[in-house]
């Protein structure tokens, strides 16, 4: 009697612990479901167990979970709806079968592939709002025993708990995606929504943004790298009816071709080797809002067809799925490339270009709107000065003259970097000409050159040498002052100067 009571207590404890599981961590749904199914198998004393889910939009079942001697092999198999699991889904009913091979519903596909013989089994539906979305099966009761109605009732309890866990995880993941979407917007720098414009040409562009923001027509923003194309895209969103909905940014050049499709359209679990769970793509995240596709000229040809369909029909499928998803999204694109030239070269679809180029906006380079340069420089100085806790009043006359005469081939991005560097090296109250490491004339301040690859030690020493030299020059080669800025001992600085062969010019 004591042994029986002990077994009952163990089963009860397993049920209680499983109940606690459904309120645990939902970040890895597969692990959670596997624990629940494994607990169910133990309680009803089975030798193997599985959770089968119906693939969306198809007549196939896949093994979400497979536990037992041949579980790994079973997970690779996709079966049809003509077997016992398919019958359970179709009729939304549980079954006990103690002579599987003679049951007319039995499909021997898994048994033939794995070699694992199915003697008897339980199969119960996993329901959400009375709709069967999957089946839990437990196979071969240990000791050669038959399954009974008590086993079936217990397994149905586990199926209910599994359904709750599955639904909770879906809600959790949806909330997580919404949080990611919000974080994507909040990650932007302070003052990101401020578009500095004083030149007549940029004031005209801002007015154009306000006029076309109400339309859902596609906008193609053209201009050199660093001119502020993303800020123009954001202005279009901020002045539109979608202002309270997501604004999703995607840099098409920043992702390898193999990942870009999944990033844009999402994927389902098992779509490719690393697809361990479903993923929502950027287009879905941008539903009801705006998606900004930067560097659209870099999108590979094989994806251009899929993007064209989104523009035409607002529909697509996740990678690995045949379920069509419909969205309502404003599409804004940008490029620094000549798309017409790419079309002529056969690298860009002409029909896609015409769809994207409904409302083109050209943003001129900074050198062609010099009225904006002092305003932008002051804006960046205030921002970086605040971040670095330095109270700069502005630029000296010589420094501002240098800023105004620079060609700024890198546009706003180059100006921003120059001001940030000056804030690091400069001392309040004013940024001086010597704090600005910018190149005047027709050449850009920074050029890309081919260099021989360095080992890590050489690269680190080069960095140390350049950094220490810059600080020493700033301090007029006063080693005591330089050591204080570098926050190191003067004796250590002297040693570094000797080791790195730093010499005063």
From TrEMBL:
Cited InterPro entries: AAA+_ATPase, AAA_lid_NorR, GAF, GAF-like_dom_sf, Homeodomain-like_sf, HTH_Fis, P-loop_NTPase, Sigma_54_int
PANTHER family referenced in this protein's UniProt entry, alphabetically = PTS-DEPENDENT DIHYDROXYACETONE KINASE OPERON REGULATORY PROTEIN-RELATED, TRANSCRIPTIONAL REGULATORY PROTEIN
| Keyword annotations from UniProtKB, A to Z | Activator, ATP-binding, DNA-binding, Nucleotide-binding, Transcription, Transcription regulation
Q: Which CDD domains match?
A: AAA
Protein name as it appears in the record: Sigma-54 dependent transcriptional regulator
Pfam families noted in UniProt: AAA_lid_14, GAF, HTH_8, Sigma54_activat
One GO MF annotation is: sequence-specific DNA binding
| Top-level lineage group | Bacteria
Give the PROSITE patterns listed for this entry.
Answer: SIGMA54_INTERACT_1, SIGMA54_INTERACT_4
Give start and end of each Sigma-54 factor interaction domain: 195-424
Question: Which BP terms in the Gene Ontology apply to this protein?
Answer: regulation of DNA-templated transcription
């Amino acid at each position: 009697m004591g042994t029986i009571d002990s077994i009952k207590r163990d089963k009860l404890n397993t049920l209680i612990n499983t109940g606690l599981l459904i309120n645990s961590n939902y970040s890895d749904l597969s692990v959670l479901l596997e624990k629940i199914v494994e607990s169910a198998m133990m309680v009803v004393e089975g030798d193997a167990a599985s959770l089968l889910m119906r693939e969306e939009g198809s007549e196939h079942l896949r093994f979400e979970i497979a536990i037992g001697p041949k579980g790994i092999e079973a997970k690779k198999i996709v079966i049809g709806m003509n077997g016992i699991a398919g019958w359970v889904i179709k009729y939304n009913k549980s079954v006990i079968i103690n002579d599987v091979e003679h049951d007319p519903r039995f499909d021997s596909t898994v048994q033939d592939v794995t070699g694992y013989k199915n003697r008897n089994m339980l199969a119960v539906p996993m329901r959400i709002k009375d709709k069967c979305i999957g089946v839990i099966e437990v196979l071969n009761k240990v000791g050669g025993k038959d399954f009974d109605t008590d086993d079936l009732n217990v397994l149905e309890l586990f199926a209910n708990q599994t359904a709750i866990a599955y639904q909770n995880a879906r809600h959790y993941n949806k909330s997580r995606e919404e949080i990611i979407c919000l974080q994507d917007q909040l990650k932007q720098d302070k003052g990101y929504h401020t578009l500095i414009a004083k030149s007549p040409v940029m004031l005209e562009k801002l007015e154009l943004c306000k006029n076309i923001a109400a339309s859902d027509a596609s906008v193609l923003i053209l201009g050199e790298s660093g001119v502020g194309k993303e800020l123009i895209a954001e202005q279009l969103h901020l002045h539109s009816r979608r202002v309270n909905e997501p604004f999703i940014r995607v840099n098409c050049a920043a992702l390898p071709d193999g990942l870009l499709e999944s990033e844009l359209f999402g994927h389902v679990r098992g779509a490719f080797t690393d697809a361990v769970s479903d993923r929502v793509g950027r287009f879905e995240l941008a539903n009801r809002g705006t998606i900004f596709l930067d560097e659209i000229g870099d999108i590979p040809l094989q994806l251009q067809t899929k993007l064209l369909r989104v523009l035409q029909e607002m529909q697509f499928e996740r990678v690995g799925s045949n379920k069509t998803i419909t969205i309502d999204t404003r599409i804004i694109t940008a490029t620094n490339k000549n798309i017409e030239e790419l079309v002529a070269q056969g690298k860009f679809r002409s029909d896609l270009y015409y769809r994207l180029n409904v409302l083109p906006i050209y943003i001129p380079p900074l050198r062609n709107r010099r009225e904006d340069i002092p305003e932008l420089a002051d804006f960046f100085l205030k921002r970086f000065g605040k971040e670095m806790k330095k109270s700069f009043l502005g630029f000296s006359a010589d420094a501002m003259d240098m800023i105004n005469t620079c060609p700024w081939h890198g546009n706003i991005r180059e100006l921003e970097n120059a001001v940030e560097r000056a804030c690091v090296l400069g001392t309040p109250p004013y940024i001086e000409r010597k704090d600005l490491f910018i190149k005047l004339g027709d050449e850009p301040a920074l050029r890309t050159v081919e260099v021989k690859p360095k080992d890590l030690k050489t690269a680190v020493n080069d960095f140390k040498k350049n950094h220490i030299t810059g600080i020493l020059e700033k301090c007029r080669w006063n080693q005591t002052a330089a050591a204080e800025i570098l926050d190191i001992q003067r004796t250590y600085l002297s040693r570094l100067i000797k080791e790195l062969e730093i010499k005063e010019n």
